[in-house]
Amino acid sequence: MATTPMTITTANIIIGPCTSFTVDGNPVGATSGGVTFEKKQTYTDLSIDQITGIAKKAIKEETYTVTTTLAEATLQNLQYALSLSAAPVVSTSPATTTLNLGLESGAVEHKLVFVGPCPPSSSNYKTRTFTLNRAINVSAVKMEIAKDKEQMYQVSFECLPDLTQPAGSEYGTIVDQ
């Protein structure tokens, strides 16, 4: 039996950096090591008496996660990394910017938007934009202040569904344009 060769379009193989990353509409600047978008699903096995194997699998839980390292050590980026609700406060006398470390009454939610390349083979599109409606930074924060290393903030946002969005896009959207 002859096999049909698989069609391969090398233009669909994507490589390229994240060109823009915003949290609540605020640009975070440079990232290091790229941006990872991950979906995990947990299944439960459904069994019935009439067969010895698993009759069906059902989705028990799904999680979307966005992970990156914020390379620009601004106080605003530190606010996102530390999951603080209050933004840095700018004062003119004396000239300071202060990020207050206080008790948080709940999880701080953000809207994430990040942009990268898309495959150009089937269109004239140039970018792929990920928009995630509700995200919470769930990573532990460790800052290293060293003479021979950049100070960066690693963040890992877990996305939550936004039930005010249209059915099928509760978590967000991915758009090639």
Describe this structure in words.
Helix content is 4%, strand content 44%. With 177 residues, the protein is mostly beta strands. The chain has one domain: Roll (Pnp Oxidase, Chain A), CATH 2.30.110. Strand 1 and strand 2 form a beta hairpin. The radius of gyration is 21 Å and the shape is extended. 15% of the residues are buried.
What is the structure about, briefly put?
This protein has 177 residues and is mainly beta. Helix content is 4%, strand content 44%.
Topology:
Blueprint: E1 20-23, E2 26-27, E3 31-46, E4 56-70, H1 75-81, E5 89-92, E6 95-98, E7 110-117, E8 127-137, E9 153-160, E10 172-176
CATH fold descriptor: Pnp Oxidase, Chain A
CATH architecture title: Roll
Major sheet:
8 strands, antiparallel
Helix content: under 10%
In the CATH scheme, the class would be Mainly Beta
Residue-averaged pLDDT: 93
Q: Tell me the structural class.
A: mainly beta
State the distance separating the first and last CA atoms.
42 Å
What is the tally of helical segments? Answer: 1
List keywords for this structure.
single chain; two-stranded antiparallel ribbon; eight-stranded antiparallel beta sheet; 10 strands; 177 residues; Pnp Oxidase, Chain A
